[in-house]
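User: quick one
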Amino acid sequence: MADSCAMKSTERNPAERALVAVVDDDESVRESLPDLLTELGFATRAFSSAEEFLASGSLDQTKCLILDIAMPGMTGLDLQQQLNDRERKIPIIFITAQKDGAVRDRALEQGAVSFLFKPFSDTALLEALSKAVRS
Amino acid sequence: MDVSYPEPEAARAQPAREKATQVAQEAGAEGTQLTKVLEFLCRAMEDASVDRVVACIHPVNEDATMFRDTVAPSLGNSYRESTNGVLVTSMTGPCCHAVARRQTVVVPDVTADPKWVKFREFADPLGIRSAWSAPIFSNDGKVLGTFAHYYFEARDPSPRDERMAELLNRAAGVAIERSRAEAALRELNETLEQRVQAETRERLQIWNVSQDLLVVAGLDGKFLSINPAWKATLGWSQEDLLGKSVQWLLHPDDRERTHTESDRLTNGHKVMRFENRLRAKDGSYHWISWKAVPDSERIYAMGRDITERKHAEEKLRHVIDTIPTLAWCNLPDGTNEFLNKNWHEYTGLPPGESHGWGWQAAFHPEDLPPLLEKWRGMLVSGEPGEIEARLRRHDGVYRWFLIRAEPFREEGGQIIRWYGTSTDIDDRKRAEEQLRRSEAFLAEGQLLSLTGSFSWKMATGEITWSEQLYRLYEFEIGTPVTFELIRTRVHPEDLTLLEKMSEQARNGEQDFEWQYRLLMPDSSIKYLHAVAHARRDQNGQLEYIATVQDVTQRRTSEEALAKARLELTQLTRVMSLATLTASIAHEVNQPLSGIVTNASTCLRMLASDPPNIDGARETARRTIRDGNRASDVITRLRALFSKKDAVLEALDLNDATREVIALCLSEIRRNQVLLRSELAHDLPAVIGDRVQLQQVILNLLRNGSEAMCRVNDRPRELLIVSERDGSDSVRLTVKDAGIGFDLGGMDKIFEAFYTTKADGMGMGLSISRSIIENHHGRLWATRNNGPGATFCFSVPCASAASAKTEIQTRTTDAA
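Assistant: Done. Structure below.
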């Protein structure tokens, strides 16, 4: 909880806070994760699909993307590929319920910052977020 | 002798000679006439002489050895009788000497010479003292007899008497010679007449007894004479037919032909043979075979009744026509003369077309050249022969025939006919062909299947191997097979087995099989599998027929397969476990993730200053909700993977569907979906597990409903339809207007874990599909023309499904 104070400084000025976007088709994630991110001092927005995120116009503000792998329509990996193709360097933290090493390796190869298996602890999330912010 | 006498003496003698000639001529051929003439000449001699002289004439027989027919008109019968039959060689009197010496003998005094002692037996009683005898000659110098003169006193003949006697001697010669000629002529005539009479008698006899019909007819064909055989054979007598024409008796069908034949007869043919039918008196017709010879004005003919032969021929023809083979007869030049009825019926060629060389048309074009070559060769060599060729049946079908021909020779050795038969061997040929083919198949089959065969005669111990068996044992084909030879190849460890097997074979006659190994020269091992069948051969002897298969490769591959199968089983087990684990993990981790995150948030809210109680309460509530959700997942998984046995029954899919609709209607309504159902009235029952099928229906309805939960721009319409699918299936269709799926997703939607739903597990469709497939049905999806997707499944109805008795009762493997 020591580093949580560092985050508090940004809390006061939401406009300056980095936007962390959450893309997951699972509703419980979309409900819970933004709350936690808010508690951690990030500005967040949740999207139920990759398509929705791409269409939202929030790409430029997004400093970090927390992305699910298995989604109907465009998958997380597809979105990562597309962002790479568009040369949008948004740091990505993948979260998935499926323990699949191959997918993880591929995601990291394509430049993902972190790959978290659900369920993950708030500490693991914070580590990943600080890595992302640093990059 | 006084020469002045001759004229008057000659003149005196002249009338006597003329008289004698006349008498002789009057006498004609009569023998007695000669005696009269000779008597006249004797008397003329006696009358003419001035002395007392007695004259007599002694004719001799043809060869002048014996006297006969003595003429002595002045001496009486006793003299004639005693001189007749006297042999010239007896030399009794002067006459004998005259004949023997062919000159006149004069005896002036019979008493003076002792050689006339015998003669004096005749002379003395008559008072004869002297005699002279002159031979009578024929024109050609033969002695015909003697003219003898006797005196009653001893003396020489007077010259006058001598001259007279000489004249009369010639007259006697003429008379005797003529008489002889007449006798010869008479004799000849008699002989001739006898012969003619005999011959006529004989011929008449033959004419009468002949059984053949003999006839003499005019050139105009009118009867002149017939023999009695006509009466016997045809009933006609000479009177019946005399003056009538032959035409009158002819069978109407034979008239023209007979007319032609008789025309040729009258046109100079020497001998004609022909046959025709003549009407008998009783109206029946008889077949007659004729031989006729004409001369310038008549026809002589001989006919034989051949009616019986004709009937026999007809019978033979009938036999030839009805024997179950094609029979024929050709002339020595190869042209056809006769084909039997069967031949015509088989080929459909009428006699007019097959005649001569026309029969060729019935043969297969490919077979004709070799056939003709063979036939010509046989005609040249005169040897019998045979050939096989295809003969066209009347319906155009060719069948194989064996054609055999044999020459028929007359006595001189000249071929006058060729007789032949054509026998249908098509079936045999086919059987042969089939046998050849099956043998080829068998050999091929043995080669391909590495199967050899052998026969083993127990009585003789004779073993016969097929070629393939030699190859299996790697012995040279044809090597005599003995047990010793086999022993050299059998694996040492299997030799006991071999002994046991052969002992078993010798003792009983049961089918048996055994497996053994061969140890080949290169130390490789062959596995063989033998099956033996016991049977009795034609002589009732026990015999085994066996097949031996090389199963080395099969054994090797079986071992490999077993290994692969084991590996595969293990792999599958690992795979399905992993898949299941992943599936459970995914489904459970999803809500767990929410729980952990919420709990973290909750703690942070409570730890903040001031604590965010409301926020904490809210997140705590969400944690509970997610915990329940995880619990639901476990329940659903348990339901999905419960290994409950399927219960098969005939069920009404409409009823099952209505139950499902009732269960989930509230959920559907909550999603603001409008459900419409069109269930067919006459739906046949299907066989299946009610609960499993209802799970599928439920799955499809939920899918459809959830696919539309975010649709706001159009009615959320869900259509469920049941209907017949073809004759033997029932189809259920669920059509939604939801988000649908793209073409790439078509295959994925049936994969496990693929889902388009926010809270789906991605297992539903995959499991649904395995359920339907276990019901021998199928499940598929199509994109709608408009928005949304259509899911259908089709399962066999009860009647069709009953044939497929086995419906897999477990569905978990699909996971």
